[in-house]
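Following up on my earlier thread - several people asked me to post the actual chain instead of describing it. Fair enough. Here it is, all 944 residues.
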Amino acid sequence: MSQIYLYQNSLNKNEVDVIDTDNILFEFLKVKKQFPQAKIYLGNPCPENDITPSIKDKASIARLTEIADDCSIVCHPGELSSFVTWVATKILGSAVSALVKVPKPNMSNNGSMSGSSNNNLSDPENRQRLKQRIPFILGRVKAIPDLFAPVIKYFKDGVEVEESLMCICENPVQVSNFKSGDTPIQEIPGTSLSAYGHNQSLIGNETIYKWGDTFDQPPVIARQNASINGQTLLPPNSTRIEASDIYFQYPNLIKANDQGTADKFNAFDINDSLIISGANFGINDLAITGQVDVDNTNNTFSIASNQTVVDFQDYRKINVTSLLVTDPVNGQLDLAGLYDIDTITYVSGVYTIHLKNPVSTNSNFANLTEVLTANLSANLTANSANIFLDGNYVVTGVDIANKQISLATPSAVNDDWNKLADLADQKTSTSTIKLRGSQENYIGWFTIESAKATGLLLNFQALNGIYQGSDAKFVDIYVEYQQVLNGNPTGNVYNQTIRLNGKANNRDSVGGSMWITLPFTGAVRFRARRTNDNGDAVDLSDETKFYTAYAYHYLSKLVYDNRILIRQRTQATRAATAIDSRMTNCIAESLVYSYRDGVKSNTRIPSRFIPDLVIELALHKLIGRRTLNEVNVEKLYSVFDEVVDYFGSEKMAEFNYTIDDANQSFEEILRMLAGVSCCNDRRLNRQIYFELERAGREPYLLFNHRNKKARSEVRTIRTKPENNYDGVEMTYVDSEAGWIEKTLKIPNDQITNPKKIEGYGIVYKQQAHIVAWRAWNKIQFQAINCRFSCFAEGELVGSGDPVAVVDDTRLAPTFFGDPSQAILSGEVLAWNGLNITGSQPCKLSTEHSFVIHLQLKSGYIDIIPVTQGQTDFDFVLSRPPVEALVTEGEVKTVYSLSTDDRQDDDLFLITTKRRAGIFENELTLVNLDERYYQNDSDIKNNLI
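Reply from S.P.:
Thanks for posting it. Predicted structure:
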């Protein structure tokens, strides 16, 4: 004898019948008659054990007569490929997916995130969101403001400063805990921040939050030129070639020994200016230091020194490497440079050097107002006994093959070239020589098209400082700009200059900003060049870059009634620049009116309570567009008081999220609010309210053949979870752990194929736990899918409502007697005390207990034990109904009969409702199982 395990619902392995039989084929055919899609398996049910016979394979039928092993029969095997099963599968999937009613992340056309950073804390960057919805904050969130205007950078007192204008949201909020990344702004020196509420001026003292200095000037609205990206401003005399194998030949040749050096000669073209540096042959330079008196009237350096300088009168140049003086009128001046000497005299330990036109070497000489004393470090060079060939010449030819450059009559510039004629072979020895080019190294022109521009902001920076050894240097920059009309330069070319001053013994970055007020409005072009040269000393650092360029104007509108704005100014200190990008954030909580007592509160209060948020949205002129009469205020507050009491936590009645999708409707937002609180949003008699989905609810309506469209019902039993899910993985933001994204895995961390849910609006572990467990329980225990069309009664129910549904897809069970005489639902035609007469005959078996489901006129379904009356149409109630039955008119009380021990089989939960015609709706449903709610008390039981 074999045993057959009969599974009607493979999702619940406890519901199995065991049949002892000597004829497996006979028992399988009996089941097959009732369940045409049944399959039989050898041992445990799985695809490889499938031994279901087919008509085409007669041997498979014969094998069932020979098997003596245990088998399993699955009445609804689940791998059906019919259209009906496919539809039912999609219905169940939709039911689970709709559990947490939240929007999908907004994606731009290129696949990048386009929503507010508030909802994407993994990328918490302040950025522009052009042509997108202004954030609307509900509850308490970590807010990452959007850029309201482009960020601008400039230098103030040599330090880089960044200013930004940002928008938190459109609705009133309470703000606190401002940070840049994870660093409180109070810990970042030089940071100022002000937040402005509705109708507060951006240059006023009235704010909703303030730290640091007051902003007393309008915000700068700038348009940056992307072409300026750190180009180096070359000095006018930049070194193009430096080599140790260069020598000079009479009368006008610069020559090289190595071909590699000669290949570099193409850095010069004919008619280029060429500066020779370091061509000093003979007596070495003489270093001289000491205290010097600088006389601007007589153009002299008077150096007090105990050095004995032999043949001092033969030196023709002095190279001053360090000389800083402080003028009483013009302040500190740097007088370094290579000066021409007219004469040198020596009297009583003082060398007096008379200079030739010192202003041509260093323009600061002209800024001296009196004789000044300072310390000097210099070299006497170009001894007359030497051959000194340094100078500025013109190139007449470049011959790389012969390794030479020809100059135009160099002896006219420096007559030491004539001394080469007296040397052996009329040439010098090799030496390390620098060949420098002299030109105006402009960066630009660049154009910025900005119709409202009234100014230019140009930033320059020497990242490594401006110094030589321990001495400060400077860089002079010259800028030209011109108006552009219709793409054509027009009018005068204007100019402006700026000097970047280094600091002695200081290697910090040096920056400077040129603020130019334009004499016109609109598009402008500009260019810049460096005008001074600090030489090529090894210990010189003065590389200066064109950092950024903006065309700007000042914001004219300073007061907004629909924006919460922030102004921030940050200095580029070590703490501020430790963050790669701008990540200003704060905690923002919506300010709303409360209607708990039925009247509007006097002032707005911070609130995360869902009823307060629902009313705020409903009354909003652009979101809900409702009046207070269209909100059931009393019901709204009472339901969420019930939510708090039922789950044991106020957190289950909170919603914390930022609405940022322009296409999101009011109804979609309400579903989000309902989803995080395990409720369903409702609208009855034009009034909005919510209902808690909880255990122990009675069905609202009864659907039977009287109010269902004939032959429209389809039922499918699932034998495995949707997509073989083995759990639920919920991602949410944990506000109590520092506003970080977390992942909760249900039922354990070992799941490998979870249903993934984004918990938008959930910021508590307890809330995530309840919602996730409900989702997983529905995946586990949703076994029956049902779909049918119904008539007017369908208008009274909505998603999430429990209803009773009579199964019109099968014949009556045998325990009702003869199936041809057992119709299980109908209308009540007569009622007399405990006796009622039904519209359909049904013979009740004496072997079972039965109940009748009566749908009363109020919509309530009364379930009463019942026995057979005098005829198959008559039934006797065990007690009177709770309301009077309707037996006359078009709409009578309807009923449904079922066995007392299987009374929950016809309870369903509506997942979707779709209008299918006039007074006709199509409902999709899943079985209602109390196990959906088995984890609802976990907060009360301290299991979280």
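Confidence is low (pLDDT under 50) at residues 79-113, 574-579, 811-815. That should answer part of your original question.
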